Amino acid sequence: MTALEILLLLFLVFCALAAVLTRHLVASVIIFMSYSSVMAILWLLLESPDLAITEAAVGAGVTSLLFFLALRKINGLKGVDEDEK
Amino acid sequence: MKNDPSKGGWFERFMHWAEGEDPGQDQESADDPARAEFIEYLEYLDAHEHMEFGAYRLMRYRERTAKGMPPQEMTGHSGHGGGAVVTRRSFPVKGRRPGTLRTMVRLYRILSVGVAGVLAATLLSVALSMPGFGDPEAPGMNQVAGRYLEDGVEETGAVNAVAGMILDYRAFDTFGESTVLFAAAMSTVLLLRSEKRKREREEPGDLILIRMGQIILPAVMMFGIYVVVNGHLSPGGGFSGGTVLGCGLILSGLVLGREEMEHLLPPRRLTGLTVGCLLAYGLMKGYSFFTGANHVGWDVPRGTPGNMFSAGFILPLNLCVGVIVACTMYTFYTLFTDREG
Amino acid sequence: MAELVIQQRFYIGAILLFSIGLATLFLHPNLIKKIIGLNLMDTSVFLFLAAMGYVDGGSAPIIVHGGEQVYINPVPGGLVLTGIVVAVSTTALFLALTCRLYRRYNSLNLDIILMKAKGEKEKKND
After folding, report:
1. What part of C 12-41 touches B (C-beta under 8 Å)?
2. pLDDT tens digits along B144-187
C-alpha cells in the first residue's frame, strides 16, 4: 500500500506541473480533471469515503465543467494562449 | 490634454494605439524618450511571445501598417489559426539597451520563485519533525475525537461519526458553510445576470446525448437521493449527495434543453428553494439556542441507531443541505450558459 | 532519513503541491492559470488536513457495534468535507469575475488589464 500511495503522490505532483506548464488552456483544464480524479483515489486510501465521493463529483464534475463553460464564454476554446513561462 | 497624445507620456501613446484613433502619428517624434521606453516595452512583449485575444493584436496590426510593413507575421506556432506569434526579428530593434522595465520583470520572476522555494524548504524541514503519519498517539487524537467516537452513537444516534459530528455537535459551523455557498451563488448572479433577455436559444442535445441521458439520468438522480438520505448510516451526507444531485440536474439541463428546464426550474424557484432551505436549517438547529444547553426537558427523539428514521434532526438537516448544494451548482451552470457576453 | 521521508510522504506531497500552486499564482499573467493555481493550493491543503487524521490500521468512522475496532480521527475529515464544496463556489466566483473582466477589457492578461485600467483612471482624472 505504501508503494501505491507514493506512486499516486508522484503522479499528482507530475499532473500539477503539467497543468501549469501547458500553454493550451483546454489541455490544462483536462489535466486538472485527472488531478482531481487521482486525488479522489487518495482520499479512499486514507479511509475517508465521504471525501472521495465529494471530490470525485466536484473535481472532475462541476469545477471542470465551469472551466469549460467560462472558456466558451470568452471564446478561448480554440485559441492557443501563449504565456511567458 | 485629453485628446492630444503627443504631449503625454508613453502610456497615452499606448492608449491611443489601443483605441485605434490615429496610427500614423508616431512618425514625427522618433527620438522622444517616452516613445523609446514604449518601444522597449513592445520589444519585451515580442521577445516573450506575449499574446492575448483582441486588443493587442489590433494595436500591432495598426502599428505595423503605419510603418508600411506587411500586416501579419506567422511562425510555426500557428495553432488553430488564432495564434500569430510575433518574434523579435519582425520589429526594428534599436540596439540592445537594458532598460529598467526588463530588469524589473526579471527581478520579479526570480523573487517569486525564490519566495515559493523558501516557503517550501521551511515547511519541508518542519514536516520531517512533525508527529508521525498514522501514529495512534498523535496529539490530534485527543479526548475530543475519543468522545465523538465513543459516545457519538448514543448522543446523536448517527452511525456515521463524521455526519454526526458536522450535523449535531458542530452544526453551527455547517450553517456558516451553507451561508458561504449561498453568498457565492448570489454574487455570481449579480455578476453574470443578463437583463436584456437576449439569450441564444439553446436547442436540446443531439441524438446520442438524449438516448444515453434517458438511460443514465434516472440512475444518477436515484444515487444522489440515496446518498443524501442515508447520510447518517453510511458514507455520504448532504454535501456529497448534493453535488451528485447537482451534476444530475446539469445533465438534465444538457439533455432536455434550455426551454424545458426553464419550465421546471425557473430562476426564481431556484433562489426560493435555496433561501427556504437555509432558513429551515437555521430554525431547526436554532432550537439549541432557543431552549438552552439542556433543551428545557424536551429532547429530540433519537430512535434506534441503524434505522433510517433515527438520529433526531440529522435526516431533515441532510435534506436541507443537499437541496442547497444542488441548487447552487445548477445556478452556476445556468449563469454560465447565457452566451451573451 | 529516507525512511522518514517515506513515512511522512503525504505531508511532503502536500507541501510540494502548495508551493507549485503558489509559484503559478505569482508567475503566470494569464487569469485562467491563476485560478488553476488557486485550486491547486486549495486541494493541497485539504490533503494535508485529512492526512493528519489517519491512524495506522484504522477503518472508516462508521461505528458498528461489537468488536474492538480502531477508527480514524473523524474531526479533520469533517472540516475538509465542507471545505471542498466551498472551494467550488469560490472557483465559480473567480470565473464569473474573469468573464466580466474579459467583456470589459478584452484581454486575459493581467498586465494589460492593469495598464488599461490605469490609463482609464488617468484619462478620467484629466
Report:
1. 12, 15-16, 18-19, 22-23, 26-27
2. 888 888 888 887 778 888 888 888 888 888 989 999 999 999 99
**CATH no. for C2-57+69-125:** 1.10.287.3510
Number of independent structural domains in chain B: 2
The neighbouring-strand residues paired with C62 are B160
Distance (Å, rounded) from C-alpha B111 to C-alpha B114? 5
- DSSP-derived 3-state class of residue C71: strand
d(C-alpha C13, C-alpha B331), whole Å: 35
CA-based end-to-end distance of chain C: 64
Nearest CA-CA partner of B6 in B22, B20, B42, C115: B22
Instruction: Characterize B16-36 residue by residue with b for buried, 16 or more Cβ atoms within 10 angstroms of its Cβ, and e for exposed.
Output: bbbeeeebeebeeeeebeebe
Instruction: Tell me which of B90, B123, B139 is where a domain ends.
Output: B90
pLDDT of residue B35: 57
- Total number of residues shown for chain C: 126
The candidate with the shortest Cα–Cα distance to B233, out of B176, B132, B329, B306, is B306
Residue A24 Cα to chain centre, angstroms: 15
What is this structure's pTM? 0.78
Separation CA A66–CA B178 (nearest Å): 20
| Test the A interface: residue of B225, B247, B334, B337 with most A CBs within 10 Å | B247
Q: How far is CA B85 from the centre of its chain?
A: 30
Q: Which domain holds residue B216?
A: 158-336
What span, in angstroms and rounded, lies between the C-alpha atoms of C8 and C11? 6
The reply to whether B247 touches chain A by the CB within 8 Å rule is yes
CB atoms within 10 A of CB A45: 14
| Subunits adjacent to chain A (3 or more Cβ pairs under 8 Å) | B, C
pLDDT tens digits along C32-86: 999 999 999 999 999 999 998 888 888 888 888 766 788 888 899 989 998 999 9
Closest chain C CA to residue A3? C6
Within this chain, do residues B49 and B166 fall inside the same structural domain, yes or no?
A: no
